[in-house]
Amino acid sequence: MYASREDIGYDFGDDSKVGNKPVKPNPNIDGGWAWMIVLSSFLVHILIMGSQMALGILNMEWLEEFNQSRGLTAWVSSLSMGITLIVGPFIGLFISMCGCRKTAIIGGILNALGWILSAYASNVHYLFLTFGVTAGIGSGMVYLPAVVMVGQYFQKRRALAQGLSTTGTGFGAFLMTALLKYLCTEFGWRNAMFIQGAISLNLCVCGALMRPLSPKDVSEKYVVRNNSEDDNQAKALSHSAETIKSNGVLSEEPEKKEEAINEEMLDSVQHIEIGSKSRSGKNMHGLRILKTVSQLTVTVRKGFAIWYSSYFGAASLFTNRVFVAFIIWALFAYSSFVIPFIHLPEIVKQYNLSRQNNIFPLTSIIAIVHIFGKVILGIISDLPCISTWNVFLMANFTLVTCILTLPLMQTYVSLAVVCALIGFSSGYFSLMPVVTEDLVGIKHLANAYGIIICANGISALFGPPFAGWIYDITHKYDFSFYISGLLYMVGVVFLFIQPCIQKKQPREKSTEEAQV
């Protein structure tokens, strides 16, 4: 059903035929500094995704403070979650121009600023701007580099590395729920947000740890990669790969021409600088400024060219039909996972289960099991006899089933069991970067994964407010879970059948060629 990009030769311009050449791999790939990258990404997931999963605590405080409807108040947390992901494609542009490290550091400052400014909110609409937009954009500028860097530094243990780093979401949801609950009780929600803003400045430290690999190291990563997928599965996406190659997807010729023009520009500036050494110091200072501006212009032009060709060029990522199916799935998936975190505290109140939930919160059950789910699914996916795609699909089907059955549970024990299954099956989030990388390659992972999380962001943006509006009308969350679950099911089914269609098309084509 699914094949990795190595098997189908889907390399977006990379020379996958050089695998027979002996190349000494970089010691930092799959080891060394790679584990510091995992640590950095782990902390990013704690501070960003974990905090967002704990927003149910602040949501209840905002309801009491501003006396607004649940639907309107839910937009604050939805904007923060949604914008974090929706800005993915634009953050891909920043990464192409500035690199992951600088993008993450700037994002950390912006995220902390959003939390601190939100402490002075006078109404819900103020929170839309400070917490939803400002903190959300900052979170997106840190989150995408954290995922991309792990993909760059790992080759053989990609799924495990992504699983370990993304377990920070589970740890963060558990820790931040307890922390925000304590801070709101002791200091009030305004001081709690101010303190959380100070804590978020540690995102700048995480960004500083994201030491970039050289282009040579990135190419060596694929030279030494071994083919681990079954040859029969490779035929499933071969037609898609051939179509993309025939269209010249993201070919390197325009990039080489662009680089030649850029080098000529810099050489001309350098010649002027050398010829002007005998001039006054003031003129030399002006030439240095000119050289810096020229280098910045070259960087911006090169980054924008890569970003534009990935999204809007004649040979864009959208020519891959399985990748398009992946995007459609992402449009429905994330809201089904976010809705329980946002509205579980209200469901507990509705069924008079507050006493049991105070002992062991249901959101904490999801968070703890979510940790094990990511690691276990990552280990399973890295096994040579297991298809990452099949593990990804099975986890999605399990999560859909849990979302549809959750409203039927009215006791704490039954809700706890369903929440545990939700936590484990949602561990497939650690496989999303791996699946995306297999489809497009590491060179275009930032742009492609930016599209995927953008679709997830749209889902997260409209899901919780929709559940809030349904509650305002019916005073029950049942229909919210049913509708979001059914939409999620449509996305999963579409993702399931598209590779089958891709597998059928090359067979029909080969039959026609044989007849001719």
Descriptive account of the structure:
- It is a single chain.
- This protein is an all-alpha fold.
- Helices cover 78% and strands 0% of the residues.
- The protein has helices spanning 5-8, 34-53, 55-66, 70-86, 88-98, 100-118, 124-153, 158-187, 189-200, 202-208, 215-223, 231-234, 238-246, 253-275, 281-311, 321-350, 354-359, 362-381, 388-405, 412-425, 432-440, 445-474, 478-515.
- The longest helix has 38 residues, at 478-515.
How are the SSEs ordered, and which strands pair?
Elements: H1 5-8, H2 34-53, H3 55-66, H4 70-86, H5 88-98, H6 100-118, H7 124-153, H8 158-187, H9 189-200, H10 202-208, H11 215-223, H12 231-234, H13 238-246, H14 253-275, H15 281-311, H16 321-350, H17 354-359, H18 362-381, H19 388-405, H20 412-425, H21 432-440, H22 445-474, H23 478-515
Helix pairs in contact: 2-7, 2-8, 2-10, 3-4, 3-8, 3-16, 4-7, 4-22, 5-6, 5-7, 5-15, 5-22, 6-7, 6-9, 6-10, 7-22, 8-9, 8-18, 14-15, 16-22, 16-23, 18-20, 19-20, 19-23, 21-22, 22-23
Transmembrane segments: 33-55, 75-96, 103-121, 127-148, 160-180, 192-210, 322-344, 359-377, 389-409, 415-436, 448-467, 479-497
Membrane topology: Multi-pass membrane protein
Main location: membrane
